[in-house]
C-alpha cells in the first residue's frame, strides 16, 4: 500500500485522529456491461476525467486524510491511475482481494486486515458529488453519543427536478 507520494500511508499518519474513507471500486454486478469488461466503472471517463477522480476530489475537499481503495478486479489499472494523480495531504492505499464477490466480502476482508481504525466514510468509486461530508460526520458523532448502538449513518440525496420524462426512456445497444 502506498500514498500518492509512494510512502505507506498507514505508517506515516497518526492512527488516532485520522478521518478515513473506503472507496469500493468494484460494482460486483454486470449492470454496465459491456463498458466494464476491460476496466472498472470507476475509471469510465466523464468530461475527460475518470469517475474515481471525482470521488477522490469529494473526499479531499471534505478533509479526508486517508483513503483505502478496495478492488477485487482491474487492480493494475487502478494502481496506474493513482500513480498518475497527485493528492497532497491525502494518503491513498490500494487493497486488492481477488476473491471478493460482494460488498459484504469486501468489508469482511477489510475488517480481517484491521485497516479501519474508527468511524469511516464508505463510497463507491463512481460517485460524482460536491457534498460536504463534515456536517454528516458531525451529525453521526452526535447520534453515536446519544445512542451507543448507532453504527451507521446513510446519506441519500433526492435529485432536484427531473431532467427527462419517464416516457423518454431509451435503450442503447452496442454491436
Automatic annotation (TrEMBL):
Boundaries of every Nucleotidyl transferase domain copy: 28-149
Protein name, UniProt field: Nucleotidyl transferase domain-containing protein
Molecular-function annotations in GO: guanyl-nucleotide exchange factor activity; translation initiation factor activity; translation initiation factor binding
Gene3D superfamilies, per the entry: Spore Coat Polysaccharide Biosynthesis Protein SpsA, Chain A (3.90.550.10)
Record InterPro entries: eIF2B_epsilon (IPR051956), NTP_transferase_dom (IPR005835), Nucleotide-diphossugar_trans (IPR029044)
GO cellular component: eukaryotic translation initiation factor 2B complex
TM segment ranges: none
Pfam families reported for this sequence: NTP_transferase
Amino acid at each position: 500500500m502506498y500514498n500518492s507520494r509512494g510512502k505507506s500511508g498507514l505508517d506515516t499518519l497518526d492512527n488516532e485522529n485520522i478521518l478515513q474513507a473506503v472507496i469500493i471500486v468494484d460494482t460486483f454486478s454486470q449492470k454496465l456491461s459491456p463498458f466494464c469488461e476491460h476496466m472498472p466503472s470507476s475509471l469510465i471517463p466523464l468530461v475527460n476525467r475518470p469517475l474515481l477522480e471525482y470521488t477522490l476530489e469529494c473526499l479531499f475537499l471534505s478533509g479526508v486524510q486517508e483513503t483505502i481503495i478496495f478492488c477485487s478486479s482491474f487492480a493494475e489499472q487502478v494502481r496506474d491511475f493513482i500513480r498518475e494523480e497527485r493528492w497532497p495531504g491525502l494518503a491513498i492505499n490500494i487493497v486488492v482481494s481477488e476473491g471478493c464477490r460482494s460488498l459484504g466480502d469486501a468489508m469482511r476482508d477489510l475488517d480481517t486486515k484491521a485497516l479501519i481504525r474508527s468511524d469511516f466514510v464508505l463510497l463507491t468509486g463512481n460517485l460524482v458529488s460536491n457534498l460536504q461530508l463534515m456536517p454528516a460526520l458531525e451529525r453521526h458523532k452526535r447520534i453515536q453519543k446519544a445512542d451507543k448502538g448507532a453504527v451507521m449513518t446513510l446519506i441519500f440525496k433526492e435529485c432536484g427536478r427531473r431532467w427527462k420524462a419517464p416516457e423518454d426512456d431509451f435503450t442503447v445497444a452496442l454491436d
